[in-house]
């Protein structure tokens, strides 16, 4: 499964957030045979459609899609030079498919700030500089090798072009994900600033309820997504009943918990979407990539479904709820039979037809 690595300076609230992520045992509850690594937190993707489907189909249980977060050891100034946990850190972050960078915005005189004071802008610059330096080192090592390979006709010249352009962009202070350079030819280098980023601002209630303050922080990281949460509150929400959670969130001006936001934005940032299946046993969301076609999507349920794919019967979620049942949707002409070239849409309710 695709994972999101959690990074940030020491004392910004990473462990607190990660504890909240792991206390929510969606995996243990829904997938009893899954192995859970100690440094992986799994959260379910909030999807109110599943509850409605379960009502229509009288499903016994609901299985949401999940998003996995990996706790990566703290980054410090000098990480790119191999100081402290630097090298291990860089190896771990390279493996993540997207990065959630936690940035401290809360004030608490009892919690030391490693850079001397709470300053989100400065912290972002510190971390970005380390990631950019690490990428520069990777490119400086790789470019002479790629040059040789291109001369020997073993590598496409596009790889060299991309590597040189990436190096220039980094030297100009850019993050590669914002550079517009086509990095596909040098994907194997695992460049850190080329990954999709989400910024998690761990802030006080005062900021959670202050739209202008949030907009100012959001501007620091645009066009990447920003999530605002209070890690301490999130770790307390986990133990509460849904009604109490709603009340507590409302009192801090939030509509959904920070973990839900993080799951939703994380899922989207990873380029994922879901389709839905429903029956008396379960109402379930299945994770696929955006743009996947029907047979590939069927393969997520079972490889036989992909190999023996014949047709997909697709009803949009809205049509299904409006008509009230599959039979009624069929009668109303809302059930479509789609073939192998059908591109799956978010919220499709699907039944696959397959043969041997
Ligand atoms: P890490 O080093 O980034 O993993 O940070 P921790 O999660 O260990 O947090 C460092 C300290 O800050 C701990 O004492 C936490 O209780 C505290 N802390 C974390 N999040 C918040 C927050 O949102 N507000 C306040 N006031 N303290 C927090």
UniProtKB/TrEMBL annotation:
Name of the protein in its database record: Ribosome-binding ATPase YchF
Cofactor(s) the protein needs: Mg(2+)
Domain OBG-type G: start-end pairs: 2-271
Main function: ATPase that binds to both the 70S ribosome and the 50S ribosomal subunit in a nucleotide-independent manner.
InterPro entries named in the record: ATPase_YchF/OLA1, Beta-grasp_dom_sf, G_OBG, GTP-bd, P-loop_NTPase, TGS, TGS-like, TGS-like_dom_sf
Gene designation per UniProt: ychF
Keywords linked to the UniProt accession: ATP-binding, Magnesium, Metal-binding, Nucleotide-binding
This protein's record includes keyword Magnesium: yes
Transmembrane segments: none
A UniProt-annotated Pfam family: MMR_HSR1
Domain TGS: 271-354
HAMAP family: YchF_OLA1_ATPase
Recorded family membership: Belongs to the TRAFAC class OBG-HflX-like GTPase superfamily. OBG GTPase family. YchF/OLA1 subfamily.
Organism of this sequence: Microbacterium lacus
CDD domains (alphabetical): TGS_YchF_OLA1 (cd04867), YchF (cd01900)
Residues reported in the UniProt entry to bind ATP: 11-16
């Amino acid at each position: 499964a695709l994972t999101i690595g959690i990074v940030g300076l020491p004392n910004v609230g990473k462990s607190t957030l990660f504890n909240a992520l792991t206390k929510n045992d969606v995996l243990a509850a829904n997938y009893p045979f899954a192995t859970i690594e100690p440094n992986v937190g799994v959260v379910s993707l909030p999807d109110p459609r599943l509850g409605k489907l379960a009502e229509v189909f009288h499903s016994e249980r609901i299985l949401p899609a999940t998003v996995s977060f990996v706790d990566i050891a703290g980054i410090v100034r000098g990480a790119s030079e191999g100081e402290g946990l630097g090298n291990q850190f860089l190896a771990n972050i390279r493996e993540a498919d997207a990065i959630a960078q936690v940035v401290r915005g809360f004030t608490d005189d009892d919690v030391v700030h490693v850079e001397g004071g709470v300053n989100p802008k400065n912290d972002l610059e510190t971390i970005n500089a380390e990631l950019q330096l690490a990428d520069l080192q990777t490119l400086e090592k790789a470019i002479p090798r790629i040059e040789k390979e291109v001369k020997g006709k073993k590598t496409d010249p596009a790889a060299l072009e991309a590597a040189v352009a990436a190096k220039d962009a980094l030297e100009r202070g850019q993050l590669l994900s914002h550079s517009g350079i086509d990095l596909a030819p040098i994907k194997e280098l695992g460049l850190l600033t080329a990954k999709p980023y989400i910024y998690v601002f761990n802030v006080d209630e005062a900021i959670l309820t202050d739209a202008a303050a949030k907009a100012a922080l959001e501007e620091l990281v645009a066009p990447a997504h920003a999530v605002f949460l209070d890690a301490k509150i999130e770790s307390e929400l986990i133990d509460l009943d849904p009604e109490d959670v709603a009340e507590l969130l409302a009192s801090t001006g939030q509509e959904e918990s920070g973990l839900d936001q993080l799951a939703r934005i994380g899922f989207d940032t990873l380029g994922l979407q879901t389709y839905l299946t429903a029956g008396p046993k379960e109402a379930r969301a299945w994770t696929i990539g955006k743009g996947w076609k029907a047979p590939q999507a069927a393969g997520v349920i079972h490889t036989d479904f992909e190999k023996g794919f014949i047709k997909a019967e697709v009803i949009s979620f809205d049509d299904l709820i409006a008509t009230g049942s599959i039979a009624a949707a069929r009668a109303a002409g809302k059930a479509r039979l789609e073939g192998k070239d059908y591109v799956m849409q978010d919220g499709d309710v699907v039944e696959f037809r397959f043969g041997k």
